[in-house]
């Protein structure tokens, strides 16, 4: 569906005195953003990868270099705070510097100096970032002027932070269990490595609890008094994150910031049609069916791969880096009332250059998807009708399987480097091997068969039949090819090199498969015309998985 102009918000939903956040005022706000070197906007995947790298380096230094487990784990958690939770750096940096100072006599001085320099430099960068928040808040409030209003549903229960609170408790328990079993490992090096992991898990759990507290505190503060209001435009990107634009940017050229939003229904709402006095209200089965349909609709929107329409909205709360906001926006369905959404994560600003690059990448991705779709459609239309079409694992899957096996071999070799491996290590390696046997079997032997009735997708117990009408989407996201149908899904992952593909004009096999299946799903005339036979649909994968598991068990028996 295409939209020529933003979806309109009813005038009655706009608070009195609410100003437009125009591009000029928004540019003044963006000028207060800190430089890029302050880690203003780091991708979650990069933050996770850097934190994991810091944890591995710290564990290695603790096991072989004598670094205290508390310092090694603290450094990894501190890296996460610098990249994703800067408010906690004020407590983490002094504690980490104190730990380095106490252990300095037992460490080479270059290590101590390098560690101290990293902590001090990152602390200074975070200080610049946090100091800029006051200017952002002041300029956003100035843009709003005297326009203030109570947030919608201000008296509703605050759910912000509940998930992070439960997650933090679970991770803390896991950290305690890891610490309690640290001395059961075979060697002193293993003991220190286990304590690094236990303390790191404890730090991650504390981080989750602190994030829950901060989010809930800011959400409550937003409800207590009338908040500044601004008229803006919003749009959901292809991954469901909300982008906020200036009110006079209907073409959605430069996003100002992004924020994850969530909406929920009040379970005690008496107007939901299911109360005891409602004769025509839906029963439990109807309510479950409606919930399932709504979930399918949301998943369809997430898998659509294209951004949503631009919508008029009112922003409650002055935005700044890390802020909590409420957004009242026009619903994509014109028959529905305005949609109220609360922050599910902090505001993440975009500098003017970063916003333009984000838009350019999005347009390039959309153009690439359209080109692939056109190529797939031409290939299907120009080809003689086939009774059956089949796709199977290829070289990307073989590379993925080889990498997985190599990782398993390295794990076994690392464990066999010491004499007399402990039962705990053997059990861990055996569990990882069983998981790998299943994954390698799928990577090596997956097959998708298309006939006139639908798709046949291989699995451990045999091929599964998916009628054409039940298929919801076929998408390639990052390294993963994902096929989703009603009430279930299937996926497989393999390496890809996007820059090399763009440079050479190549098409990844997953992209070609997804485009062709999507064309068949949308146009019945492009589907195969015959019925597939049992051999064409593929065989169960469990025999191959059992064989791989037996080979792994034999290797462990020889090793043990």
Describe it.
This protein is an alpha+beta fold and 560 residues long. Helix content is 52%, strand content 14%. The chain has helices spanning 23-30, 44-64, 69-84, 89-103, 109-144, 162-180, 188-224, 284-303, 352-382, 395-416, 423-445, 498-504, 509-522, 534-537, 542-559, and strands at residues 19-20, 148-149, 227-236, 242-245, 257-259, 261-262, 311-316, 326-329, 339-343, 348-349, 389-392, 447-451, 454-457, 464-467, 471-477, 480-485, 488-493. The longest helix is centred in the middle third of the chain and has 37 residues, at 188-224. Mean pLDDT is 83; it is low at 265-284.
Task: Give me some keywords for this one.
560 residues; alpha+beta; ten-stranded mixed β-sheet; four-stranded antiparallel β-sheet; 14% strand
Explain the layout of strands and helices.
Elements: E1 19-20, H1 23-30, H2 44-64, H3 69-84, H4 89-103, H5 109-144, E2 148-149, H6 162-180, H7 188-224, E3 227-236, E4 242-245, E5 257-259, E6 261-262, H8 284-303, E7 311-316, E8 326-329, E9 339-343, E10 348-349, H9 352-382, E11 389-392, H10 395-416, H11 423-445, E12 447-451, E13 454-457, E14 464-467, E15 471-477, E16 480-485, E17 488-493, H12 498-504, H13 509-522, H14 534-537, H15 542-559
Parallel strand pairs: 1-3
Antiparallel strand pairs: 2-3, 3-4, 3-7, 4-5, 5-10, 6-9, 7-8, 8-9, 11-12, 12-13, 13-14, 15-16, 16-17
Helix pairs in contact: 1-5, 2-3, 2-7, 3-4, 3-7, 4-5, 6-7, 9-13, 10-11, 11-15
